[in-house]
Amino acid sequence: MERFDFVVIGGGMMGAPCARHLAEAGHRVALVAAPEPAVKAEWQGPFGSHFDAARITRQVAADPDWALLSQRSIARYGDLEARSGQTIFREVGALMAGPTDGPLAGFTEGFLAVAQSVEGAEILSAGDIWEALGLALPDESEVCLERRGGGWIDPRAMRHAQVMLAAHAGARIVPQAAVARNGDVVALADGERIGGDEIVVATGPHAGSDGLLPLVPSMKVWARTIALARISETMARRLAGMPSVIWVPEGWDHDLYLLPPVRYPDGHLYLKIGGQLDSPRIHSAADMRDWFHGTGDAAVGARLMTQMRELMPDLKVQATHTEPCAVVWTDTGFPYVARVAEGLTVLTGGNGAAAKCGDELGRLGAMVARGQDISGEGYATDFRAVWVP
Asked: Where do the FAD dependent oxidoreductase domain residues begin and end (predicted)?
């Protein structure tokens, strides 16, 4: 049985950078990273929501800790691109808009406060945005437009870069799923076993149901739906200046997100929209497989498309469809980056924001796995884990 200093289980937005940071620090590392399924409906292994073409990235957030996680990650995008040859980041700008009163007033106050310290962030009105971008935000919206540092990333390219650089630093990449853990030994889907002085479980939404931890992390896993609108090349050129957008529709009690035109693997250009306050819960590995074998919730997709058209009244759409996604919400509102026991670390709980700040979360996970104290890293939260009693 091959042994390593560290075995990182999960090659997603947090696990892959964790393995890279550990390998580049000179440790012997194995990264257990199941591949993207060729045929989704036939795949019986773990699914990753990061198998996607675009995720919003931005320096501004409603919470200072989330903003710092993003800012530190964004500052390293260029290095990752230069060393891997991958194109990860599209700096098209990022817009956040919210109401000044009601239940989401605190959300707006939070991102406006953070924006004061972000270079290139402008505070504008809904009228300014209509004039500049043709986006019909609610009239009373307060708006932050981050022209530099914001935009979108390609999560597949990010994952590929992290895995490639981990391998270049000497990590063994294991392209399959982990099916069990017994102490310091991890059993793989093909029957092989590998050992590690420290095991890092970074399996995202699966961490509560895959049995790799001795305790169950207290977190909610939601079955989410995204909607995609296919547009023409001509329409995409008209939207060439469009930033990524997060906004609260008139009278809504939660925000939505919208990405600018992105070319997907099928060759078409799409606008992607998502955002739900509530949705079905995922409780087991079977629930997760069933959800990802489907195409999402058509009714949710229709509501999302209605809001896209209200925001973009001049939009011409060729076709629409929905896709499934999964989001993890922890009890603390922050990722769990913590030692579980001697030789075991948990790194999970993206709270819908792991893609843009995964590199920093991976770095923190690597520190915890090495037994280092992260309390001096500048965050108000301690990234503690909460467990189901």
From this structure: 5-364
